[in-house]
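Entry 14. Structure prediction run on the chain below.
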Amino acid sequence: MLNVPTLGPNVPRRGNAISRGLSHLALRLSGWRIAGDMPNLSKFVIIVAPHTSNWDFFIGVMVMFALELRGTFLGKHTIFRGPLGSLMRWLGGVPVNRSASHDMVAQTIGYFESRPHMVLALSPEGTRKKLPAWRTGFYHVARGARVPIVPVSFDFPKRLVQIYPAFTATDDQTADLAAIRAYFDASMARHPAKY
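Output returned:
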């Protein structure tokens, strides 16, 4: 059996012995390991990096079910069409139209305020393309909703999903983002040239 961290009683959960067992098996067969612990909180933002491949999503789903974590994620509205849309919603997806002008940060803070439990997983890159800097929406959501940020790295050469300690944002955005980004310095993306 795969050695997987245990969630505390306050963390929102989903799944059952079958989904947990299948995810453990998939992670073990693919050589992936999970290290670190999720905070025992009912609400927080998970940021996952580096994000350079569609495989990141599948690994994230396997980890979510292996941990029995009920996570929410924002996805491009086009992947929520047809039968795939039903699956994405069941997995915890919320469709987002990136071309429309609306305040996603305020909407996402509203999701946190209207729910007793919510774990939101985001990529600070927001895309699989190389960016000069991270997008900061996750940071403003966490500050606005008054929830911590949990950095999670995917290191492809090591096949390691590393969960880092929860980080509480302060009034110094520049220092906070530098401290959070440092957690990911040692992680290697699936496509390093894109990171």
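Residues 32 and 158 are 8 Å apart (CA to CA).
Filed with the rest of this week's runs.
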